[in-house]
Design goal:
This protein is of the alpha/beta class. The protein has 13 helices and 22 strands. The chain binds flavin-adenine dinucleotide and 1,4-dihydronicotinamide adenine dinucleotide.
Length: 469
Amino acid sequence: MAEYDYDVLVIGAGPGGYVAAIRAAQLGLKTACAESRETLGGTCLNVGCIPSKAMLHASEYFDAASNGAMADMGIEVSPKLNLDKMHAQRRDAVEGLTKGVAFLFKKNKVDWKNGHATFQDAHTVKVGDETVTAKNIIIATGSSVTPLPGVEVDNDGQVVVDSTGALELASVPKKMVVIGGGVIGLELGSVWRRLGAEVTVVEYLDALLPGMDGDVRKEAGKIFKKQGMELRLSTKVTGCTVKGKTATLTLEPAAGGDSEELEADCVLVSIGRRPNTDGLGLENIGLETNQRGQIEIDHDFRTKVDGVWAIGDVVPGPMLAHKAEDEGIACAENIAGQTGIVNHDLIPGVVYTWPEFAGVGLTQEEAIEKLGDKSKVKVGKFPMMANSRAKTNHEPEGFVKVIAEAETDRVLGVWAIASVAGTMIAQATQAMEFGATSEDIAYTCHAHPTHSEAIKEAAMAVQGKPIHV
Ligand code: FAD
Ligand code: NAI
């Protein structure tokens, strides 16, 4: 009899876990995946990336029809919102994709153990009533919403909600307050603003989208304001009371000072996410989390406990689905004795609003700090207004910014605000993965007319020689 039931047991079937399980099985390892949800796909497929993009895509059409953008192109329509149908197409998208993962598990012979997993020892896990042993165990338990003290989320009540509740609102709020001007706040705030809500974003810092390039953050403020969002920057929420269908928030300047009250019929709490390790039994294997609640790993995704590995939102790094997926593949390959590597310096980030905000590599501020002096960094910028395709499509907002090392011309970062910035950033990531200089990008032929030509022009601008501006 084999020493263990499985070669690999993955805990969590999000984009990190399900991808790791499939790759492990592809490599000939006997694999199981424990998942407590009734469906596979984790946060991303069930309540994250996919349903939020379904609502963003649908609401974008509604907005274009109602705000005059379609009329500008000679299409005159008066849109009528059928919110139930919009929600139904979102649920269809989720159902199709989560079932797709179940199909892939069957096809690749990955056994799904449905239940909450708790470590008994480093090779034994209890999943519901079943005990499963494995030679290698990958923790891919993901993350959940960070709570805000004094503001209690009640998704069923639909007044104070988190991202999961904000995807399911049964009617368009009149006044929505978003706490946190990060990715979730701006994406889901955009959905409900487009559908008719008055949206106020309360952000603790002095600019939106922390982590992104300074110019991008500044421009984001202007763009969302122009779209009608009220921005309360450098402001914190200190409390919330709910009476019936109305929430009253107490706000204070972030630096301290007089408080004020703000009423809303919907409040979205989106101040970040934290790793899921509760009830996992880490104490039974002597594994501690760091100060941020994350599981520390080495370059190969090994934890301090032999045979136990970890990937995705539960480990340090950006909480992004594609980062989790790549780590899942690399971790499974390492377990199989191959060399699995993820280049954590080049994980692109995208905010799927209108326009989209995207970036990869260093911000200008980080590049200057890393190289120690402003003169060591060269920047080329190109406005979307001067890009023929964006201009023709009535999408003039945004720019592309290429940041390069002055001495070597090596590209250190690329940032883009454009209708399709999320798609454009892939070419920048690939170029940087191959160690491109700005000249390499500038002398690469780009199809015309495309938004991507703005990346080429921004690269030409690093040498001070863009053509179209
Ligand atoms: P998760 O997807 O969180 O999956 C972990 C799974 O483990 C869960 O299904 C959970 O039920 C299960 N689990 C946890 N503990 C146990 C246990 N003890 N036993 C059994 N099962 C367990 N990222 C992007 O890159 N692009 C986007 O557009 C994007 N949009 C998002 C929108 C929203 C609203 C949210 C909330 C997130 C979004 N993200 C996006 C982030 C993305 O969803 C996460 O980075 C990604 O899901 C992390 O993958 P993971 O596999 O590490 O964990
Ligand atoms: P976030 O970290 O992006 O933004 C949280 C914001 O809340 C920050 O700007 C922060 O300064 C602010 N904040 C914190 N405490 C506050 C307070 N008390 N009052 C006011 N503001 C406060 O986190 P978010 O938006 O919740 O998203 C969580 C994670 O999910 C992100 O890390 C992101 O990686 C991932 N995600 C990714 C998406 C994408 O890739 N398109 C979409 C949605 C989520």
